[in-house]
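Lab notebook, bench 4. Continuing the backlog of folding jobs that were queued last week. Each job is logged with the same field layout so the records can be merged later without manual cleanup. Today's entry covers N-acetyltransferase domain-containing protein, a 227-residue chain. Filled in by technician R.K.

JOB TYPE: sequence-to-structure
TARGET: N-acetyltransferase domain-containing protein
LENGTH: 227
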Amino acid sequence: MTIEVDCTVSPTTVTDTQKTNIKSSSTLRLEPATVSDVEQLTDVWYAAFGPTLDGMFPNTPAVRQWWNDAHRNDILNKPFQRYVKVTDTAGDGKPIAWAKWDFSTAAERGPRFPPWHEECDKDLCSRFFGTLETERERLLGGKKNYYLDMLATRPEHERRGAGSMLVQWGCDVADKDGVPAYIDASKAGAPLYKRFGFEDRTEPGMGFPDIVSMVREPKPRDQGKKE
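JOB STATUS: finished
OUTPUT FIELD FOLLOWS
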């Protein structure tokens, strides 16, 4: 199956034209996420990562609200951060997966998150995400790159192609603009990204042992589609 997503609009703007240009795959539909989706985005994130990252982000009402506020602020005030979601038209219409693509460099973006919530493990959060930022800087420096900041899929909807649609969308934009893409992937997730041309650039002894630093160089658009 070929996943095709039309990215004819500049990544710095969100328009009605872009929304109508995004195509579907089977009953899965990819479209921009909006502020009305933020609580559902947080639900999907905890379903995907809660057991793994509970030490940093405990699943409490207060921390959930922190995530909701962070997503809402990004969507409303950071046009260079693009939230896209996948819904199943045969289901209830709620997001089953979503991604956050960041089209800025770290210097352009500023702080990745708002101040950590009191219930978070602040030291661990700062060390973990600080290390990820250091790895991105090591590999790309100030070079323009598009960063797959987050990708989350509900476990019961894994292996349906939703994650691939979200990755393909960002890769298409990167190819159109001639810009490298970057991701901090788990070792379990790395094979998915390799299918889209991401290469493991991890250096032994650098970063975290279970995180793979991956870079994808831009390709001509007719080479960017995955069967």
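OBSERVATION: The chain is about 35% helix and 20% strand.
SIGNED: R.K.
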